Amino acid sequence: MTTSGYSVLDSSLIVKLIIKEDGSEKAFALLSRLAGDRVVAITPRYMLAEVLSTLCKKFKFGQITKNDIVAGLKVLKELKIQTVQENNADFVDALNMAIKTQEPTIYDSLFLCLAIKLKAEFITADAKYYKKAIKQYDNCTLV
Description:
Blueprint: E1 6-9, H1 11-18, H2 24-36, E2 40-44, H3 47-60, H4 66-78, E3 81-84, H5 88-101, H6 107-118, E4 121-124, H7 127-136, E5 140-142
């Protein structure tokens, strides 16, 4: 639960909001809860690149079609999710967090560090990363 008025949504959750898959209903229920509580859903601006990369990968492996991608992008435009532009310090924080959590990349850490910076709830659909994140920050939610 957030006390700052913000909740940081990671890419795994956003993919569930734009492409129908296991967990999509829970993701939409969570988004409705946030709206009802007047909580601002927010992500690093980098989210778009990560989400698009995930869609490309799903397309490559035949999990979704080009039409699914087009429809998903329309949904993404309609979602009321604010983005924050990362700066050099944010990338350094994410690198340090990735080292601390033994992540092979900084991508997930950008989202977690934004939540910490804003004192916001961090929400993910990635159970593996959640287990690492909750050890670093106690305001984490797994959907």
